[in-house]
Structure formats: structure tokens, C-alpha cells
Amino acid sequence: MANKIYLDKSGLTYFWSKIKAKLATKADTNSLATVATSGSYNDLSNKPTVDSTLSSSSTNAVQNQAVYAAIGDVESILQTLNSGNGV
């Protein structure tokens, strides 16, 4: 049979103070933005703009400019091949 260990009043008081200290460091959900508790993109404020089409003048953080430039390079190569000049 295992020995049982019990806390006396001072041990319990110490243990409870440690639990309260840990709980005090947790964020108050009332101070958080709605998105922090809902997880919904629709609750996000200041949503980033995501371009729906490629452009050479995008300021999108995803930088579709790089994709646009790469497609332009492929198109240029294809035009060269189609013109019979080779690469």
C-alpha cells in the first residue's frame, strides 16, 4: 500500500498562493481582441489586402510581383521558341 502524504495548513496555503500567482499571469479574455478567442478571420481588424489579379505594381505583402515577373519570363521564353529563334 502506498504511503499517503497530506499537506498541512501552511503547505496548502503555500500551494494555493503558487496557483493564484500562475493564474494572475494569464490574459484577461475581456482585454483581448475578438479574433483572439473566436479564431475567425472575419473578426480580424486591419485585414491584409490580397490582390485578386497579378500586376507589376502590387504592394501586397505576398509580393505577387515576383509571380508576375516569373510568368513574364516564361512568356518571353515561349515567344522566343514560337518565333523559331530557339533559346
Summarize the entry for a quick read:
The chain has 3 helices and no strands.
Question: Could you walk me through the main structural features you see in this protein, from its secondary elements to its overall organization?
Answer:
The chain is mostly helical. The protein has a domain at 52-87. The protein is built from 3 helices and no strands. The chain has helices at residues 9-24, 34-38, 64-82. The radius of gyration is 30 Å and the shape is elongated. The mean pLDDT is 80.
How helix-rich are the residues, as a percent range? 40-55%
- Structural class label: mainly alpha
Note the beta-strand portion: under 5%
Please provide the ordered H/E string of secondary-structure elements: HHH
Mean pLDDT: 80
Shape: elongated
Number of helices: 3
Q: List the uncertain runs.
A: none
- Distance N to C terminus: 84 Å
